[in-house]
Amino acid sequence: MNLGISRSQILALALMVACIALLPLVLYPVFLMKVMCYALFACAFNLVLGYAGLLSFGHAAFFGTGAYVGAWTAKALMLTPELAILCGGATGGLLGMAFGFLAIRRQGLDFAMITLALAQMTYFFYLQAPFTNGEDGIQKVPRGDALGVLSLEPDMTMYWFVSAIFLGGFGFIYRIVHSPFGNVLKGIRENEARASSLGYRANSYKLIAFGLSAFLAAIAGATKTHVFGIATLSDVSLETSSLVLLMALLGGKGTIFGPIVGAILVVSMESKLATMGSWVMIAQGIVFIACVLLFRRGIVGEINRGLRTSL
Amino acid sequence: MNMIRDYSARRLIGLAALAASISFAPASNAQEVFRIGYMVDLNGPTSALTGPGAAEAAKMAIEDFGGSVLGKKIEMIVADHQNKPDIGSAIAREWYDAKGVHAIFDLSQSALALAVKDLAVPRKRVAIFTSAMSSDLTSKSCSSNTINWGWDTYSNTRGLSEAIVKNGGKSWFYLTVDYTFGKMLESQSQAMVKQAGGTVLGSSYAPLGTTDYSANLLQAAARKPDVLAFANSANDLVNSLKQSVEFGVTARRALFVFQVPDADAVGLKSVQGAQFVDQFYWDMSDETRAFTKRFTQRMGKDTPPTGPQANAYGAVMHYLKAVKAAGTDNADAVMKMMREMPINDFYTKNARIREDGRVMRDMYLLEAKKVEDSKSRWDLFKVVQKIPDGSAFQPATDSECPLIKK
Known about the structure:
Chain A is an all-alpha fold. In chain A, 71% of the residues lie in helices and 1% in strands. The model of chain A has no long low-confidence stretch (mean pLDDT 91).
């Protein structure tokens, strides 16, 4: 049982913070911001997949809701970015509670299919809703001034803003996972009947975890919208749901740092291979197969097993 | 730290290979070359319409131009936006900011085109759309740094509707894909039908990605329209067209977004007699046939170029000519020169660019040939009439573009 932070975790965290601080000197900051948004999304997804053992196939609904609500509140209501992002997060969280309320009554494949169906309904809602402009999306979302004073237009200012959100979200997830609540969640994942017999109301725990995960996924979506200034249908699409699943599995589900590694890999492949034409999908497929065959626990999962750490 | 025995070397090798596969190639020096970007859907649903063929046509333009401008070698980077506007706009940002790209071409998705427009203007760079169809690009979302080279929803609906009504197709029924794109096509066409003296009998909506159109087609058949209009595209169009033949719908068929690869996919039998508007058909003239011959040789297959692929050549060529004539890569000067110079290439004759970025080109009303008139696989269409000098496009007086002085 590790309630405190272990030495290897401190090392990994220090490495991550150092990377966040130094990488913009060599890599393009907008690319790094995108990685961080997806990493937060993947961490949030991992909260239900890795720690509650629920395979959600509809997390794009929350990510996209965050993106659309964040975009709309920033553009139409002229909210400052942090408020717009919180609005997006809150809406996503509420939607998550509603979806969770329906879906957690079932497990395994049924659960996945219910979340998928609800996510598709969400997709068609955004396709039709007038405020989203259909397939044109919400364009030209202003980055605005953080707290009403600090302009986020320069990429580097935006970068620190996104870093703060990412680290905040990551810290929040870390606390959730290592709290008594998180331990109960893991207990439910391992043996739900036993956890119930000990007096824990398993469904309530799962519902709260699902809601928190949806909230953080929506925060990630709203942040991404502010980085790029657009919210479009691809954010709520089925593809985004499968992408985040790929990130979590690739990095290692049920590990703290795994989803981040997965997000780095997937986003890098998407953008670095964009110039190679047909290879993006093929490379993603090959990497996924290699991952499943060679390191079934994901990259960080295998490192943990090899080095006996709990990253 | 002890390695556990079964943590085999194989896994480590796999891990190392994976890490190595993500390499970050350093950007080469932007000063020595003149760089332009070509962003398109290389694998997705619109890749037959634009895709690798369009990128190849752009390359042909660079070669025909001579390969260098302002004393620098022209380099074209190609990227796949994967139909995700965030991927596309991230690439566009990087191209403009870090790679010194002067102009980005194609952007074959309206959402992405709109996003890149917002990137190009403050950075004083150029973006030229050669396949995106939103008429907003040259109306309320126009800019001084962007051009729409070819068709848009206006030309493909209004021009077509007017021509068909004048030709005797008075009563219209619409089969519309149920989202903004379909509704935009439908409403623009209906406005023109009514203006030209036709009547609208009704519409039937089907969600994106529908495979069974029987309910919609029965509704259409019951109203007995002169014209059945298909306000959809790509797979939806192919499926609904095929089924309309199976259901024996005899009405004249109007298509808003139609191209050679679609006709090949549906089969001429299902589409014969259907009318639509395009900027280009490969068998229009000797020049277009000559271009088609070169193009198909380079592509290694016999599919003739589409309108957006011809646009790719035309846009890159005209842009490079303007850079040469202006003697600078400054976007304002280049844009000014592009507007001053008439556009002339293998399929465009003396077209001009209006203040809102609209290329005032000739458009063509095309008709799919009867099966018995088609001599070969690609002998698919015939030109019914020319819609000259930009008259297929939204008139300047109706444009919501603030750059047009009224």
